[in-house]
Amino acid sequence: MSPKRFFPGVYALEGESGEALATLNLTPGRRFYGEQLVTVDGVEYRTWNPYRSKLAAAIRKGLGVMPISRGDKVLYLGVASGTTCSHVSDIIGVGGHVWGVDFAPRPIRDLIEGLAKHRDNVSPILGDARRPRTYSVNVPKVNGIYADVAQPDQAGIVVENARVFLKSGGWAVMAVKSRSIDVTKAPQRIYAAEIEKLREGGFEIDESLELDPFEKDHALVVSRLKP
Ligand SMILES: C[S@@+](CC[C@H](N)C(=O)[O-])C[C@H]1O[C@@H](n2cnc3c(N)ncnc32)[C@H](O)[C@@H]1O
């Protein structure tokens, strides 16, 4: 059976243990973090685990519109060793590019060795997402920002980076980890406050999804910078 298409470049594969989310593998034969490679009708897919990636969890939770498109230029804040980034790289394809920022040297080293060496559309940047001007020489204007930094000021970081890098009408996808902000408050109050900060920063909110049971006390917010 042909894979079911969720969004351009994102599929559901039928397997013995049910349906698995997957992206088209941009570098056939190569896997990056223990995911499975599955070939259907001569096309290779990489399975995408919603317990390992908040974007995959959001798709599983019913994401309505996938903001990331083929050919997009993406600034990824909190890229770590590149688990989700590898699927973003699949979705944007050879015509797109992702600049991945992380302030921890070890994951950046793993990103270089594990992913960027094998893909021309991924550029790692060792940098602090709270100080976008420090990497502005390395990153052009982008179509979208994906942020997963697990910091107390997650929305503020998105807004500051958007001022420097995001094109008018561009998208921002922000993962919110409520426990990084305040363990004493209800997660829903924290999500609402972060969303308000995005609005104040000039964003319109498209969608907000809670990611339980894949990620406890996390939400993913999809927004667009008003033209
Ligand atoms: C939850 S992990 C990211 C996982 C990754 N997005 C994925 O799905 O594969 C959060 C990452 O954000 C990074 N981080 C936290 N604060 C940061 C900052 N101010 N600047 C850059 N990276 C930051 C951490 O080093 C960590 O690697």
The SS-based structural class is: alpha/beta
Q: Determine the number of helices (DSSP H or I, runs of at least 4 residues).
A: 6
The unique ligands bound to this protein are: S-adenosylmethionine
The helix content, as a percent range, equals: 25-40%
- Topology as a string of helices (H) and strands (E): EEEEEHEHEHEEHEHHEE
**Shape call:** globular
Biggest sheet: strands, sense, closure? 7 strands, mixed
Strand content: 25-35%
Kindly report how far apart the N and C termini lie.
42 Å
* CATH fold topology of the largest domain: Rossmann fold
Residue runs with pLDDT of under 50 for 5 or more positions: none
Describe this entry's structure for a reader:
This protein is an alpha/beta fold and 227 residues long. It folds into two domains: 45 residues, Phosphorylase Kinase, domain 1 (2-Layer Sandwich), CATH 3.30.200; 170 residues, Vaccinia Virus protein VP39 (Rossmann fold), CATH 3.40.50. The chain is built from six helices and twelve strands. It has a seven-stranded mixed β-sheet, with helices on both faces. A five-stranded antiparallel β-sheet has the order 1-2-3-5-4. Helix 4 runs parallel beside helix 6. Bound molecules: S-adenosylmethionine (SAM).
